[in-house]
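Exercise 3.2. Students should predict the tertiary structure of the chain below and write it as structure tokens, then compare their answer with the key that follows.

Predict this chain's 3D structure.
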Amino acid sequence: MKICLINPTDFPRTEVFDLSSHLSEAGYEVTILFPTKNKVLNADVKKISFPAYFLPKIHYTIPNLIQEYSIISDLVTKGNYNIIQACDYDYLTSLPPLFVKKKINIPLIITTDAFPGISWFFGNRFVDAVGKTYTQTLGKLIFNFCDKLVVLSNNLAEDSKKIGISPKKVCVIPNGINFNQFSPEVDGTEIRKKLNITDNEKVILFVGRLSLVKRVDILIDVIKRLSEEGLQVKAVIIGDGEYRDYYHKLAESNNNIIFTGSISHSEIQKYFAMADVFMLPSLSEGLPNVLLEVAACAKPIVATNTGGISDIVIHGKTGFLVEHGDLDAFIEYVRLILNDEELSKKLGNNAYEHVRKEFDWSVIIKKYEQVYEGLTRM
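Answer key:
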């Protein structure tokens, strides 16, 4: 079976790359299409062992969308593809496949990790209003026209009903986790030494984009309060973004906070390994890959109860869920984990077992196979 995957960004997103790789291993012929303004393969794309084609970068909407339609239509028709799968309806790259589907009657799958303005919020009223309007108009049109809508979490499946999408069209298939890269066996001692963290200091870890929606300010307040209580604790904040200077300024008088900047994905598991607890205080999330990776390293998690996080963090079993902005609850649960080594190990081991059972790529590929087979029999 031949699958044409449309990646919405000009770099190979982790979930698209991993899905393509595992589909290829399962015997599927996979082709990825990338939007780009210059036809030069970056280092990550060069690593892909299956065909990659270029779409126009959408700077001039109408001409570029027409060109994209032409490229997809020509490729899919000549290559005798069985299915088109486009990622994220909130990118304009999801529009041309609708017309290709109509032209040659090929099954179309749309995947999404969030419904902007409905289940995901930027934190800006205007932006969130635009997102909601887009989802309820053009987004709904895309959903109704595609053959199957794949959402990454049970929370999104419920939210799809609010938009008016038929439950028969929706299926839940999360992203998977690569257990060859992330495991409890990784040693974080080297990273602790590199960051000058002593053996008797506990570590709260955050990994993500330094944006307003990630609410890193809550973590900064947590570390401040716990330090005032006399706990020997450090916060390690990994990532970069438009609010980097803002968060640095908030933390500038606190010697217990370490900003590392961006860390390569191939090295990040060593940072997970040295952590005692992972904290994600975001305003909104889809199904965060970082939580799957942390859980695969058997680390306890304290996170906001938003988006698909509750599919990964089972309250009291694999970590703790907190309502958005509840600083006292974040402090309580982080303190509890840091002060109780037995509880920490239990939560971490439960997290590992949970993601191993539900999010292994072998499980995910079987779910996609059922969808593909159902659509090609239609």
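Discussion points: The longest helix spans residues 125-145. Confidence is low (pLDDT under 50) at residues 40-50.
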